[in-house]
Design brief:
The complex is a heterodimer of chains A (341) and B (361). Chain A is of the alpha+beta class and 341 residues long. Chain A contains eight helices and 18 strands. The chains are: A alpha+beta (341), B alpha+beta (361).
């Protein structure tokens, strides 16, 4: 299993720095294509999901992994040359203050914010209080960054001890775990489909269309779960991947959960539970596709440290990859009902 | 017919559609009006289970071949879509003194309701949202907005029995506004989205360059519901949603904050709360507008949502875009629209369909 750990370490930095805010995932798609070469048939669907198919004899298994990262979209350029933006994805405006924004067409800008009159520290910031510092005059800024221009957060990942520190870990960490697992797994017991989905942060939009097209019999979603150190009983870093029991619109299917548990035991990976009220991952979209898909969520714990940076424990990431690798070689306990073919 | 063979925008369609009543879930009158406008020009017309009107139109014979003589099987199947429903009120109870209790259907700002005249139910009886004259309003109340739960519609009936002769619980109420025009500026209710409905009905007057399914949807204002069902059934290759959207010009608002502005051309959506518009399709529309010298503007990103959001995630996904006529004061008693924008929309959609016939994606 050493090779899986080495794979994760080799893949993650290039995934983190690949360009791919919601709806503009061409950069990360190309990076993933290169990383997946030789692992199966690659196609891109109409929504932009990258689909890998590795035909096999068992039931049709979908691994859904979102590949978009948070971004911003320009709403107007002011007379001063400053830009106004709104956010693409679930980040709070306050977390993005000071982030460097990269544009697909080239160029960069800084995200600042209006302190406002008498605004207190810690007050909830609205996206329209953010502004883009372009360093350009209004004419040039309007030409370079017209309304509707999408920007990504520049990521410069680094390691602090055992922790990966980066802006785009949600969900490039999941992408790295899954690709490393695909490279390091044994004889796959499934007809395997992997969907690297788009626009997950805007409401699992890619997962909705991707799952519809694949029509799987079993769904496993690999994502990141944000761990709040203040929350007792919640997931924490270094204690292994989370098995998702519940989030908005999703309850783990008992048979798929059991499959994940067996894979974890076989891979000697410790796991923890994830129960959250918020909607977070692609799980609800996969679960509710067509006549319903037995689905479970596997999530890598991550901590938000303020600002754009999140932290992921390197061992959790490798354990997640090991679990997924083992999952693919673990036969399902009994055929879950569902699927139409 | 205009220079490029596009049909012309029919103002009489906008007038009839704006005057028709059609709050979400009660779109019948709008649907009947549309049927009479398009019946003669379509190959198939049906009403789906939720009430959306679905019209199929194939291109004229011989048009399916591109200039190179290559058979293209008529090009991609395009769904053009506009929603029939408007925001309004729903009667929830009749008080013993004959006053009607109401709730909002769709997004209406409570601040605009007091004192408004509405048309209620099938009989279109007029009723006013009651208000105290300023003499009687206590000083402390003057600065407050009355929530809709505390408002009522007054027919002039003096008892529940009297009111019940003309009105029933479950009846809808629409703003009592008749269509008018001043030069190229139209005024009327429900331009969101009767403007889109009229543009679409105008487009259907001629056989399109590609196979088109025109869908006038129900229940957009309460959650994009009609479009979700219709898209699944139509299963198009491409979708273009036609809307009447909010223009932002108001006194003391900076020009760059007020975009899109009425009269400055159709607004094109890059992103809103429901959709990341398909980039290739947006580029196509933008390039077509440039070539045809049609002025366009960007709809402000991050606000609003349209049927396109649901169509885009239908089935295995549908590349979708939104083209809107910027209207002042939508979701209010009377909106303004510059007819030049509506004409440009017809031209732009038609020209875009022509390019789709040549090549897509």
């Amino acid at each position: 299993m050493k090779s899986i750990a080495a794979s994760v370490d080799a893949l993650l930095p290039s995934f983190l720095t690949a360009y791919g805010p919601p709806g503009r995932e061409a950069g990360i798609r190309a990076t993933l294509r290169r990383a997946l070469r030789g692992l199966g048939t690659l196609t891109e669907d109409r929504t932009g999901n990258l689909l890998l198919h590795k035909p096999g004899k068992g039931p049709r298994l979908l691994l859904a992994v979102s590949m978009d990262a948070p971004g911003v979209i320009v709403t107007r350029i002011e007379g001063t040359g400053l830009g106004r933006v709104t956010l693409l994805g679930g980040r709070a405006p306050a977390e993005l203050i000071g982030a460097t924004i990269l544009f697909e067409e080239g160029g960069r800008a800084l995200l600042g914010y209006d302190r406002g009159r008498g605004s207190k520290d810690g007050a909830e910031l609205e996206p329209d209080q953010l502004f883009l510092e372009t360093g350009l005059g209004p004419k040039e800024a309007g030409r370079r960054f017209p309304v509707g221009t999408v920007g990504a957060i520049q990521d410069e990942p680094f390691r602090l001890g055992e922790l990966w520190c980066a802006a785009n870990l949600d969900n490039r960490a999941g992408c790295a775990a899954v690709v490393a697992a695909l490279r390091g797994t044994g004889v796959i017991r499934y007809d395997l489909h992997v969907a690297f989905t788009v626009q997950s942060d805007l409401g699992a939009r890619g997962a909705i269309t991707g799952t519809f097209g694949i029509d799987p019999e079993i769904g496993v979603v690999v994502d990141v779960a944000h761990a709040d150190p203040k929350e007792a009983g919640g997931p924490s870093l270094g204690k292994g991947p989370c098995l998702g029991l519940k989030e908005e619109g999703y309850l783990a299917h008992p048979l798929v959960l059991e499959l994940l548990k067996r894979a974890a035991t076989a891979a000697r990976v410790k796991t923890q539970w994830l129960i959250r009220e918020s909607e977070g991952s692609d799980a609800r979209a996969v679960r509710a596709s067509r006549a319903g898909v037995p689905t479970a969520l596997l999530a890598i714990p991550a901590r938000r440290s303020g600002g754009p940076i999140s932290l992921v424990h390197a061992r959790d990431l490798v354990d997640t990859a090991n679990l997924v690798a083992r999952l693919l070689t673990t036969p399902p306990s009994k055929q879950p009902k569902g699927g139409s073919r | 017919m205009s220079r490029n063979g596009a049909p012309v925008f029919e103002e009489r369609f906008l007038e009839a559609l704006s005057n028709a009543a059609g709050v979400s879930g009660g779109e019948g009158q709008v649907r009947e009006t549309l049927v009479s406008m398009v019946r003669e020009h379509v190959d198939g017309l049906e009403i789906d289970a939720l009430g959306s009107l679905v019209a199929r139109v194939s291109p004229a014979k011989g048009i399916g071949k591109s200039r190179a003589g290559r058979a293209r099987r008529g090009g991609p199947h395009v769904m053009l879509c506009a929603h029939m429903d408007e925001v309004g009120l729903l009667v929830t109870a009749i008080d013993s003194d004959g006053r009607l209790r109401v709730r909002k259907v769709g997004g209406i700002d409570s601040r605009i309701l007091v004192g408004q005249v509405f048309r209620v139910g099938e009989s279109a009886i007029q009723a006013v949202v009651g208000s105290l004259p300023p003499h009687l309003v206590p000083r402390a109340e003057r600065e407050k907005v009355t929530p809709v739960e505390d408002l009522y519609l007054d027919l002039g009936a003096s008892s529940r029995e009297e009111a019940a002769i003309r009105v029933a619980i479950g009846d809808y109420a629409v703003f009592d506004t008749r269509y008018e025009r001043w030069g190229t500026i139209s005024k009327g209710k429900a331009f969101d989205d009767r403007a889109g409905c009229a543009v679409l009905a105008s487009l259907i007057q001629r056989r399109p360059p590609v196979p088109v399914t025109a869908v006038w949807t129900v229940q957009e204002e309460v959650g994009l519901r009609g479009a979700a069902a219709a898209a699944r059934r139509v299963a198009p290759d491409v979708a273009i949603v036609l809307e009447g959207t909010a223009s932002g010009e108001m006194p003391r608002i900076e020009r760059e904050e007020s975009a899109p502005r009425m009269g400055e051309g159709p607004a094109i959506t890059v992103q809103d709360r429901s959709l990341m518009a398909d980039r290739r399709l947006v580029d196509r529309i933008q390039k077509t507008a440039k070539r045809r010298r049609i002025p366009t503007q960007w709809k402000r990103p991050g606000v609003g949502g349209t049927d396109a959001g649901r169509i885009a995630i239908s089935g295995t996904g549908v590349p979708s875009a939104v083209i809107s006529a910027p209207c002042r004061y939508i979701h209010a008693p009377a909106a303004y629209l510059d007819l030049r924008d509506a004409r440009r929309m017809v031209d732009l959609v038609w020209s875009t369909l022509e390019t789709l016939r040549e090549e897509w994606p």
